[in-house]
Write a structure and sequence with these properties.
2 domains
């Protein structure tokens, strides 16, 4: 896992007097924005259920759920339903997922013993101590640009530089647009689906 300080090599030359905790916070904020826009952090989880679960936590530590790409129970794809429309009961195999609270799922009509498989889009938690290595290795300079954009825009600081902040924000925005296209296509360069696929 990467530490927010790993991004300082691209940040501190332009903000030498910025306090390290402030810089780290801006790195996390930029990483959140990058992940939300590009959907670059995907994670697959397999959760073994004993059938007694109500709310099922589905995110790793230091991560926040953006979206659920797909879900399946014992190999059968699950639909999605709003919590207000869900009908919970004791009988029947799960056919859908819903949420009563963020980052925790409920099965409809209810959990059964079996395996829940999830494909998720994630972003760093606001108080994360670590970031996935790929954010540093593949997107480190881009996230640093985002951090510099907001950091240098802080008014009345020795490191304040609104003009340079705008430049870094522009670079960050372009990187996020490019990153979204890469996330859709993938490094394997698979073609994007042009129409829906139903299972």
């Amino acid at each position: 896992m990467a530490d927010p300080t790993d991004f300082f090599r691209w940040i501190l030359p332009s903000a030498t007097t910025a306090p390290e905790p402030t810089v780290s916070a801006h790195v996390i904020d930029a990483a959140q924005d990058f992940c939300k826009r590009t959907r670059c952090w995907r994670s697959r989880h397999s959760i073994t259920l004993d059938g007694t679960e109500t709310d099922i936590p589905c995110t790793p530590e230091d991560a926040v759920l953006i979206d659920i790409e797909s879900s399946a129970f014992d190999g059968r794809p699950l639909g999605k339903t709003r919590y207000s429309d869900a009908e919970f009961g004791d009988d029947g195999m799960p056919w859908a997922i819903t949420q009563r609270s963020p980052a925790a799922l409920q099965l409809v009509p209810r959990a059964q013993p079996g395996k829940l498989e999830l494909s998720l889009f994630l972003m760093p938690a606001p108080l994360a101590d670590e970031l996935p290595d790929f954010l540093r290795d593949l997107h480190g300079r881009d996230i640093a640009n985002g951090a510099l954009g907001t950091l240098l825009a802080i008014p009345n600081q020795p490191f304040s530089n609104p003009a340079l902040a705008a430049h870094h924000i522009s670079l960050f925005e372009r990187a996020m647009d490019k990153g979204f296209n890469l996330s859709i296509r993938g490094q394997q360069r698979a073609p994007a689906r042009a129409k829906s696929r139903f299972m």
